[in-house]
Write a structure and sequence with these properties.
Structural class: mainly alpha
Number of helices: 12
Membrane topology: Multi-pass membrane protein
Radius of gyration: 24 Å
Order of helices and strands: HHHHHHHHHHHH
Distance between the termini: 25 Å
Pfam families: BPD_transp_1, OppC_N
Largest sheet: none
Family: Belongs to the binding-protein-dependent transport system permease family. OppBC subfamily.
Organism: Alsobacter sp. KACC 23698
Helix content: 55-70%
Keywords: Cell membrane, Membrane, Peptide transport, Protein transport, Transmembrane, Transmembrane helix, Transport
Number of strands: 0
């Protein structure tokens, strides 16, 4: 950073919030700071962020945090024990510690969420921006394909794809990603229809930029924030879909400690040994709620009209 653009001592806040930034870097940092201020004012969003960060730390340190093995139990002495000091969340029908299985199951949840976001969001962003900028026959064809995917409930369509691909966590991720991109395409197309009429897009066209360059360099970056917000809000649905596939035996296979599969295993004992199904169900509820709160906060923070 040059001396001309550097803020005076104690003037970092004024430098970041300047109405007339002197460089791209200052403008980008100012937008990021303004977004963080808007986000941090939302206490529920901060709570959601704290839970998501805690989930990340738990997944990273699962081997150190889990008091027992998530795969090995003792049928003679620890089968279906209620919550106690030795087993905080009790044990399941195989004598395995439920808390340890939930801790290790957080890795599978993050694996599904991250991979689905990496696969589905770029597909939806590309389809939506290309359709919105191209218009005409290309727009009609891409949107009709999108409508076909939107016409089916996500879980039902994911079940069909997993049935065709075969059970397993990897195939479940692919199936969920295939069914998750249409809403992102709709959002990106709506944003593109507005952006393509802007004066600076016309100026770029007059300078001789190709359509692909315009879409990739000038339209997609402006659609990313809306897609990020929708992806974050969809995390809860992705978790529930993955849990539903696991509950039906089409997701992670035993003895993998996946939360949906744990609920399916506990449904046989739900009346007498309620903790077997209640503990993973509570984990799904808390994590899904956290992503919803985080998504609401990001929606407010990434809205350029609301950042101050």
């Amino acid at each position: 950073m040059s001396a001309v653009n550097a803020p005076a001592p104690g003037g970092w806040r004024e430098w970041l919030m300047s109405d007339r930034p002197q460089s791209r870097r200052q403008a980008a940092l100012g937008r990021a700071y303004g977004g963080w201020r808007a986000f941090s004012r939302n206490r529920l969003a901060m709570l959601g962020l704290a839970i998501v960060i805690a989930l990340l730390l738990v997944a990273m340190c699962a081997n150190q945090l889990a008091p027992y093995s998530p795969y090995i139990g003792d049928l003679r002495t620890t089968r279906l024990l209620p919550p106690s000091a030795a087993h905080w969340f009790g044990t399941d029908d195989q004598g395995r510690d439920i808390l340890s299985r939930i801790i290790h199951g957080s890795r599978i949840t993050l694996f599904v969420v991250v991979l689905v976001a990496i696969l589905a969001a770029p597909i939806g962003l590309a389809v939506g921006t290309v359709a919105g900028y191209s218009g005409g026959l290309i727009d009609a064809a891409l949107m009709r394909i999108t409508d076909i995917f939107l016409a089916f409930p996500r879980l039902i369509l994911a079940l069909a794809f997993v049935a065709a691909l075969g059970p397993g966590i990897e195939n479940a991720v692919i199936a969920i990603a295939i069914t998750s991109w249409p809403p992102y395409a709709r959002i990106a197309r709506a944003e593109t229809l507005t952006i393509r009429q802007a004066d600076y897009i016309a100026a770029v066209q007059l300078m001789g930029a190709s359509p692909w360059r315009i879409v990739l360099r000038h339209i997609m970056p402006l659609c990313v924030s809306s897609v990020i917000v929708r992806v974050t809000l969809d995390m809860a649905g992705i978790i529930l879909t993955a849990a539903g596939l696991g509950f039906l035996g089409l997701g992670a296979q035993p003895p993998t400690p996946e939360w949906g599969a744990m609920i399916a295993n506990g449904r046989l004992y739900v009346l007498d040994q309620w903790w077997v199904a209640a503990a993973p169900g509570a984990a799904i509820f808390v994590v899904s709620l956290a992503f919803n709160l985080l998504g609401d906060g990001l929606r407010d923070a990434l809205d350029p009209k609301g950042v101050k």
